[in-house]
Amino acid sequence: MAQAMFRIWRGDARGGGFQDFTVQISDGMVVLDVVHQIQAEQANDLAVRWNCKAGKCGSCSAEINGHPKLMCMTRLSSLPLDRPVTVEPMRTFPLVRDLVTDVSWNYEVKKRIKPFQPRTPDAADGTWRMDQRDVDRVQEFRKCIECFLCQDVCHVLREHQLHREYIGPRFYVHTAALEMHPLDVANRLADLRGPGGLGYCNITKCCTKVCPEGIKITDNAIIPLKERVVDEFYDPVRRLFRIFRPKPQPPPAKGAPEAEPEPTRTAASSSAPR
Ligand code: SF4
Ligand code: SF4
Ligand code: FES
User: Fold this and answer.
1) Which domains does the chain have, with CATH numbers?
2) Is 69 left (phi over 0), alpha (psi -120 to 50) or beta?
3) Which residue CA neighbors atom 7 of ligand 1 most closely?
């Protein structure tokens, strides 16, 4: 069995620092296995949030050797072990303790986004007709596991701390899923341009690079949303078109379908409510 050195950040909002641990490692281990081993054998009070150990709950986000990653999906075989492996909490969110951050700001942002609002049914029996290509287009966005690694890496939040005037890539993905939904008739473009801060995004694609679900955040969500905002507010032909052809209206509340469910996070080890 080989040895490796892990350098793990310990502390809370008042301060802290890195602590070194020498661990025994074996084939197939991921970073979360090592953190659990340290917790079991060397530091019982080490705080870490995790849940599924399968890359699906989005709980175990951290920065490994300075890169935002899921601890449960980062194999030791992908890391250079001839030097210490650093593991630290996400920097963009307030620290709770050790590797655990308070991501509740994200849930507050989500509440401010207009929910799914379906148009009037196409048929008398209350059903709709949709083109399969329109249905397929939003499926990519629905893979999001709300790990918030994209929020962590985005410089508008990480460096400029514009949490009050910017919703971040995770919520551009969420908004794109709603805006591009073939049944949705709500208009979120003014919100994106104003309080959503879409103009702050300069399309660096850092968010896309860290997404563990491989969602093409910039190309498939942010750029189309930017194009829609430009069309809505800066295209004079489109403005005239809107005056003479108003948007379809939603039906009365009775009989409308529920908003489509988002991926769920089981509660056991998550500190923040959805
Ligand atoms: S592309 Fe935009 S949202 Fe993504 S990390 Fe860069 S600035 Fe942030
Ligand atoms: S878009 Fe990707 S990186 Fe961002 S929260 Fe969702 S899964 Fe995580
Ligand atoms: S424990 Fe890593 S994503 Fe669930």
Assistant:
1) 2-101 (3.10.20.30), 104-244 (1.10.1060.10)
2) beta
3) 201
